[in-house]
Amino acid sequence: MKERIILLVEDNPDDEALTIRALQKNNILNEVVVARDGAEALDFLHGTGKHGGRDISIQPELVLLDLNLPKLNGLEVLKKIRDHEQTRLLPVVILTTSNEDQDKIESYRLGCNSYIRKPVDFLQFNEAIRQLGMYWLLLNQGPPKGKSV
């Protein structure tokens, strides 16, 4: 399971706790690494900064990316993920409160794999996380590890 990491990029502690609780409640037992801003997310992916020396051959199975982040916003992070050969193929799901058409358009233009608006109600949020986990961690077949375009 060491290689089945979920990178949760979320600056709101309440949303972080809610997401982790929903993952656990749905028996999604992958290791969750939390980055609290866009720069920290990129440091984790590239093994720099406080994640210096991390084995970057082990990349997350899934990136859950909020849009409203300090330092670098989610769209900037997504662009940098897609611009870098090592991370270009990572599944990135935007998980945000934004319902703005422009955010959706820009997220897909930059290459997100899915855009999910966070439900306010916990039961609906829990169901969204259950379905997200079922699809992205069980049903979806990503590219072979170590392959790039």
Structure notes:
With 149 residues, the chain is of the alpha/beta class. The protein has one domain (6-139): 3-Layer(aba) Sandwich (Rossmann fold), CATH 3.40.50. The chain is 40% helix and 14% strand. The protein has 5 helices and 5 strands, in the order βαβαβαβαβα. It has helices at residues 13-25, 38-46, 74-83, 101-109, 122-139; strands at residues 6-9, 32-35, 62-65, 92-96, 114-117. The protein has a 5-stranded parallel beta sheet, sandwiched between helices. The protein is globular, with a radius of gyration of 14 Å. 27% of the residues are buried.
Number of strands: 5
Q: What is the average of the pLDDT values? A: 92
What is the CATH homologous superfamily assignment? Response regulator
Number of helices: 5
Please describe the biggest sheet, giving its number of strands, its sense, and whether it closes into a barrel: 5 strands, parallel
Oligomer: single chain
- Tell me the strand percentage band: 5-15%
Blueprint of the fold:
Elements: E1 6-9, H1 13-25, E2 32-35, H2 38-46, E3 62-65, H3 74-83, E4 92-96, H4 101-109, E5 114-117, H5 122-139
Parallel strand pairs: 1-2, 1-3, 3-4, 4-5
For this entry, give a set of tags.
149 residues, alpha/beta, Rossmann fold, 5-stranded parallel β-sheet, 5 helices, 5 strands, 40% helix, 14% strand, globular
Question: What's this, in brief?
Answer:
It contains 5 helices and 5 strands.
